[in-house]
């Protein structure tokens, strides 16, 4: 059997260790609030002997109305990671380049390789932000896709609206720009780029959002993209048919009905995240300004040791040795432990 060597060499997607029953799972930027009863009610009594609506029409209609676009300007996938994969496959093939920041979302390199394309990683700035001028300079005539992640996973930093506009003015309109806004609802910085305010402004921009984070539906796998119809039609063609389940579609519709309550919880988490960052900085940590539901601890060579110390205290976190540790903002009860251990170890760095 000849398997593609670049696929065989891909590392498995790391999810972080499963949390023990009494531990806090702060390794996947999940929403710690329990599912809303209305959402749970909506996914009861499913006809699971039937296939779902392949086009997720009801969901697209709801999202289209909300964003002031047509249903064809919305594509729904099994998580926004699926929509991203479809977009990359639609635009970049063998030998084509996909430019993205690094460190950024760890799924990017794998999706690019599966498409047969080549990833071009542009290092973050010293203060853990996207380096947009360097990203622009990395674009060649082989570049097909540019991924911008704001807030950036795992550092939480946002791209400014102004610098994003300058970037869009400088890149060729034939380059597909994907703005990955998985954490958009957590952003409180009004100078940050907001994809929802840019719809229809560019013929080459697709904005990605997800129901996994703010809406707490990570386990059902549903995300979406908004952008120009020709790009989204190509992405639809690159999809695995029927991968957005009926449960996922019903849950989204129910979640949007109780959106005010869910977004109030997001407000609680955003405030908690701001408070944790402030406390960590007071302890001496150089924590980048995070607008997501997570914080980045630049632990350098101490990364594995400190992740173990947090694990021993019952906090499962995501370590990226030798750079740092990403900690999701979870239950209020986890915050005191986080700050206690961080206060102890900051002096050992
Ligand atoms: N983009 C970013 C930046 C993420 O952090 C994640 C989830 N970790 C995703 C996309 C994927 O989210 P989902 O597929 O659950 O919608």
TrEMBL record:
Q: What is its EC number?
A: 2.6.1.57
Check the record and name the Pfam families matching this protein: Aminotran_1_2 (PF00155)
Q: Which cofactor does it need?
A: pyridoxal 5'-phosphate
- Annotated InterPro entries: Aminotrans_II_pyridoxalP_BS, Aminotransferase_I/II_large, ArAT, HistidinolP_aminotransfase, PyrdxlP-dep_Trfase, PyrdxlP-dep_Trfase_major, PyrdxlP-dep_Trfase_small
Q: Which organism is it from?
A: Microcella pacifica
Protein family: Belongs to the class-II pyridoxal-phosphate-dependent aminotransferase family.
| Positions carrying N6-(pyridoxal phosphate)lysine | 213
What is catalysed by this protein?
Answer: an aromatic L-alpha-amino acid + 2-oxoglutarate = an aromatic oxo-acid + L-glutamate
Coiled-coil ranges per UniProt: none
* Keywords tagged on the record: Aminotransferase, Pyridoxal phosphate, Transferase
Asked if Acetylation is a keyword of the record, the answer is: no
Which Gene Ontology molecular function entries are recorded, alphabetically? aromatic-amino-acid transaminase activity; pyridoxal phosphate binding
Its annotated function is as follows: Aminotransferase that catalyzes the conversion of aromatic amino acids and 2-oxoglutarate into corresponding aromatic oxo acids and L-glutamate.
PANTHER family per record:
HISTIDINOL-PHOSPHATE AMINOTRANSFERASE, HISTIDINOL-PHOSPHATE AMINOTRANSFERASE 2
- Ranges of residues in domain Aminotransferase class I/classII large: 23-339
Q: Does the keyword Transmembrane apply?
A: no
The protein here is known as Aromatic amino acid aminotransferase
- Fill in the subunit field for this protein: Homodimer.
